[in-house]
């Protein structure tokens, strides 16, 4: 019988999906292929199914992955290969689940004090400020997952032409509501904290309130549209 340590890094011999052990309490399923909305929708479907299994405590979708915690209602078995195999089998037949969420419009002030790294995005992409703002505010961004910190949304759909590498030296603290670009993704900080992304603007929207029900403003399946409130050069 395999122990938990034996499956710390499970290689799927039938598909490029990867499953690894998170401590002794969970498995991480990493979807194969490039990040896309259809892949994320299959993650949502897999999460919904796995959450109903008796051996699963919680199924939490991430960006192109799924964390599955072990149920605490029974003693922890030594061998979790059956659960890993069950995840693989469910993924093979999972169909994209299109969640019908809300669309939230966020007014953004681009540049200025709230967007100190807009010039860095200009320098990297070779595009002008107006074009960067236009390309950033044009898409409807689906919320793929929540994570990093309470209320933070991982978004898909950013124009690849404004992609900018993460900063070599992270910023110690940026305010909540900071709109940033990191690689091929964009996001909005739900609270103040450190960041290695390029902050290009700020919104006054509050993404997390512990007194609100639910506390997080957005959920997977919702969408964000950035509205240009002002551009400060």
Structure, described:
This protein is an alpha+beta fold. The protein has 2 domains: 89 residues, Gyrase A, domain 2 (2-Layer Sandwich), CATH 3.30.1360; 130 residues, Cyclophilin-like (Cyclophilin). Helices cover 19% and strands 32% of the residues. The chain is built from 4 helices and 14 strands. The strands form 3 sheets. A 7-stranded mixed sheet has the order 8-7-14-6-13-10-11. The protein has a 5-stranded antiparallel sheet with strand order 1-2-3-5-4, covered by helices on one side. The chain has a two-stranded antiparallel ribbon with strand order 9-12. It is elongated and about 60 Å long.
Features:
single chain; 233 residues; alpha+beta; Gyrase A, domain 2; Cyclophilin; 2 domains; 7-stranded mixed β-sheet; 5-stranded antiparallel β-sheet; 4 helices; 14 strands; 32% strand; elongated; disordered N terminus
Q: How are the elements arranged and paired?
A:
Layout: E1 9-11, E2 18-22, E3 26-30, H1 37-50, E4 56-62, E5 65-70, H2 81-93, E6 103-111, H3 118-125, H4 129-137, E7 141-146, E8 153-155, E9 171-174, E10 178-182, E11 185-188, E12 193-195, E13 198-202, E14 223-232
Parallel strand pairs: 6-14
Antiparallel strand pairs: 1-2, 2-3, 3-5, 4-5, 6-13, 7-8, 7-14, 9-12, 10-11, 10-13
